[in-house]
Design a protein that fits this description.
- With 211 residues, the protein is an alpha/beta fold.
- It has a single domain, classed as Rossmann fold.
- It is built from nine helices and seven strands.
- The chain is 47% helix and 24% strand.
- The two termini are 28 Å apart.
- The N terminus is likely disordered.
- Helix 3 crosses helix 4.
- It has a seven-stranded mixed beta sheet with strand order 3-2-1-4-5-7-6.
- The radius of gyration is 16 Å and the shape is globular.
- Bound molecules: S-adenosylmethionine.
- The site of S-adenosylmethionine (SAM) has 19 residues, from helix 4.
Length: 211
């Protein structure tokens, strides 16, 4: 876990936050709407797993009536998230709880919705994480876990801007949402006998599990 955490330190966290606040900014509310539309869940308890600087959790907290918990294992990134949550005025609705996907700080059957963007492909133990997610979901609860930019148009817009900063950016993205990672997540879910639906389209790649 140590080597993995070190990828998400103060410097990378600040850089990611700057990008998330500017180039990625239009993506989060679009994904928040897609989550609600596709899962059919628009209230209750929502966990944003691997919440990073908090932008997806903030979008869903602003647009819907969830009680949201952001969970991330990087203390440095959590510090950034706490500031963002305050400055966006959602601190009554969104609480940050330090924790890891493979050891979630929640009771069984706790959450109506577990969402996660751009984090799954960093999880060290995907099997443990999906077991935890299933344990924490309420019966009838759903997940929306994966990665993406919401639409072809938004992805293209982000790509144009990101290319200016990092010419290799598309390669990293294609690898993260690529066949190997996807197949690994699929086979883990199959082995655990967890039913899921995979959205693999212009919105990105998202695993929707229903407990
Ligand atoms: C690329 S960032 C995405 C942040 C945010 N979800 C977003 O879309 O803006 C990935 C985040 O996942 C977190 N992460 C990676 N592995 C994790 C794990 N096993 N448990 C909790 N958080 C994790 C990292 O610390 C990082 O903040």
């Amino acid at each position: 876990m140590e080597t993995q955490t070190s990828k998400f330190n103060k410097e990378t966290g600040k850089n990611f936050d700057t990008i998330a606040k500017t180039i990625f900014a239009p993506v989060y509310p679009v994904i928040a709407d897609q989550i609600v539309e596709r899962t059919g869940i628009d209230k209750g308890i929502c966990i944003d797993l691997g919440s990073g600087p908090g932008h997806l959790g903030i979008a869903i907290a602003k647009l819907y009536k969830f009680k949201v918990y952001g969970v991330d294992f990087s203390a440095e990134i959590n510090d950034i998230a706490v500031q963002n949550i305050k400055s966006e005025g959602v601190d009554q609705q969104l609480k940050l709880i330090p924790g890891s996907a493979d050891d979630m700080p929640f009771n069984n059957n706790f959450a109506d919705l577990i969402i996660s963007r751009g984090s799954l492909f960093f999880w060290q133990d995907v099997e443990k994480a999906f077991n935890e997610i299933y344990r924490v979901l309420k019966p009838g609860g759903k997940t929306y876990i994966g990665g993406g930019f919401g639409s072809d148009e938004l992805r293209e817009q982000v790509t144009v801007e990101m290319r200016k900063i990092d010419p290799d950016w598309e390669c990293h993205g294609k690898k993260q949402l690529g066949k190997d990672n996807t197949e690994h997540a699929r086979s883990v879910l199959d082995n655990l006998n967890i039913d899921y639906h995979l959205f693999d389209d212009e919105t990105g790649l998202w695993f929707m599990i229903k407990k």
